[in-house]
Amino acid sequence: MTINTTVIGSRLAGTSVLFSILDVLASVGRDWEMLHGLPVQIPVFDVSLRTSDGAPYWDVNGRKITPDALLAEAPEPDLVIVPDLHFDPNADFPEDLRPVADWLRAAHERGAIVASVCSGAVLLGAAGLLDGKEATTHWGFADMLGREFPEVKVCRDRILVPAGEGHRVVTAGGASAWADLMLYLIARFAGADEARRIAKIYLINPHLDGQMTYASLTSGRQHEDQLISEAQVWAARHYDMPSPVAAMAQRSGMTERGFHRRFKKATGQAPGDYIQTLRIEEAKQLLETTATSIDEVSAEVGYSEPSSFRSAFRKRVGISASAYRKKWQALAPMYRAMG
Predict the structure, then answer these.
(1) Start-to-end CA span in the chain (Å)
(2) CA-CA distance, 272 to 244, in Å (whole number)?
(3) What DSSP line would sit under 47-79, residue for residue?
(4) DSSP reduced 3-state for 151
(5) Please, what is the angle between helix 271-289 and helix 226-238, to 10°?
(6) Domain extent listing, the chain
(7) Fold assignment, 226-332
């Protein structure tokens, strides 16, 4: 059985993810066989790049892209994949994508499995396909997904989330999670052995740690509250002092309770959580770039007890501080070699 697969193109779609999806799915049943002198199999995925009008377009990276067909052309898809989309996560959903969201909803109602990579989940949200379901997206778009579509259960730490009856909606996290999605879909339609073969051909290593080890924890929403903005600037310089939240409230001239309410309304975070975020983000930088002991890092960013730091770090980043250091400092020899 061949799976008719549509990958949705648009002027907002990234180039590399779009064509990586097309290349990998086209190689299933072909490339492993060619490498080992075996007969090439009937393609598992009949994959095409489609847009609303089928016309060539210039994508967000300045590349001229020529689609294979219109979304509305036959055959109807068994599988639809939305790649990463580049737009401002602090703005509203792009209205010019509404017709694509409508088509996506109709395709799903006709029986198609719908999947997304990275910020493509926002298009699934606009189609109403994530209401009441768990979903993931790039960590930078998690707030937007929850804000625009409050019925979605956003799992910002997960790389891959199959959801709904029959797992007919699948979302993948950050842009490089396209590879995790491909292995999942290949295993689902062609078997685990074929997924392993493709992983070996493309040197794909699944993101088993989740995506919070990559996230910038301080990517908060924008606001226009000058008093809170001034408090945030002060906090960025004094997060390591004892009781910084009480100090921020005192500087603002408000009661601590009133300041807490106003801060959360402006930023979406309680001030205590915001301070913890600043501390952990600075700790990440120290762990990536220095040999400072973990206990010393803990003290430097404002924790009086190393055990409290270790617990907070694991909660927000998803792995221990020592594992985080090992993961990112492994890149240092590569950087030196390149220099």
Answers:
(1) 50
(2) 8
(3) EEEEESS---EE-TTS-EE--SEETTSSSPPSE
(4) coil
(5) 40
(6) 3-202, 226-332
(7) Arc Repressor Mutant, subunit A (1.10.10)
Q: What is the Cα–Cα distance from 123 to 13, expressed in whole angstroms?
A: 12
Question: How wide is the angle at C-alpha 235 spanned by C-alphas 232 and 240, nearest 5°?
Answer: 160
Continuous segment of H or E residues that includes residue 255 = none
Which class for 96: exposed (0-12), middle (13-18), buried (19 or more C-beta within 10 A)? exposed
Per-residue pLDDT for the chain (339 aa), expressed as one digit of tens each? 799 999 999 999 999 999 999 999 999 999 888 888 888 888 899 999 999 999 999 999 999 999 999 999 989 999 999 999 999 998 888 888 999 999 999 999 999 999 999 999 999 999 999 999 999 999 889 999 999 999 999 988 788 899 988 899 999 988 788 988 998 899 899 888 888 888 888 888 766 555 555 555 555 556 778 898 888 888 888 889 999 999 999 999 999 999 999 998 888 889 998 899 889 888 888 888 788 999 999 999 999 999 999 999 988 888 899 988 887 776 555 444 444
CATH number of 3-202: 3.40.50.880
User: Strands, E, within the chain: which ranges?
Assistant: 3-8, 45-51, 57-58, 64-65, 69-70, 79-82, 113-117, 134-135, 153-154, 160-163, 169-172
Q: What is the dihedral of CA 222, 148, 48, 2, to 10 degrees?
A: 130
Give the tokens for residue 2. 């061949």
Is the overall model pTM greater than 0.85, yes or no? no
Contact 131, 150 (CB under 8 A): no
